[in-house]
Write a structure and sequence with these properties.
Blueprint: H1 3-30, H2 52-61, H3 72-82
Helix pairs in contact: 2-3
Length: 90
């Protein structure tokens, strides 16, 4: 087996595992679990490499109380802030 065949197997395994995880999350979120299932959000530390403002936006959007979740205009505004006020179409 060549190196490229082996890489393809690794890619297929990763994609398969990722799709199973996504499917599990979708089933649990839409299934009406009590309390509502929320996928884990990484901690606010530099080791994750994720912008802490984005992590907070995720937490706010997944608030247990719908009235406390940001509206769409607020989400867009916060995305612009996170993206350095740069609008992108992609």
């Amino acid at each position: 087996m060549s190196g490229s065949d082996n890489w393809s197997d690794k890619q297929q395994h990763f994609i398969s595992a990722h799709l199973r995880l996504c499917a599990d999350i979708l089933v649990r979120v839409s299934g009406g679990e009590t309390p509502a299932f929320r996928p884990p959000i990484p901690p606010d530390d530099a080791a994750t490499g994720v912008n802490p403002l984005l992590l907070q936006l995720m937490r706010d959007c997944w608030d247990e109380h719908p009235a406390l979740r940001p509206d769409f205009a607020s989400v867009c505004s916060r995305f612009l802030q996170i993206n350095g006020e740069k609008y992108t179409e992609h």
